[in-house]
Amino acid sequence: MKNAGIVWTRESLDEFLRAPLTMIPGTNMAFAGMPDAQERDRLITFLLNLTDKHPLCH
What we know:
Largest sheet: none
Oligomer: single chain
Number of helices: 3
Number of strands: 0
Shape: globular
Distance between the termini: 26 Å
Structural class: mainly alpha
């Protein structure tokens, strides 16, 4: 994941949370993904609101 070169945006977070192994093949991530779009959106909103320093929070 470290070398994947991903810029974490709302869209890339959504794609990753939906299907981590599809987005980053070969990762050892033990997370199967979140198929429910509404749950992903709530999680992403929560994560982005953790800090006002994140560029997507503005």
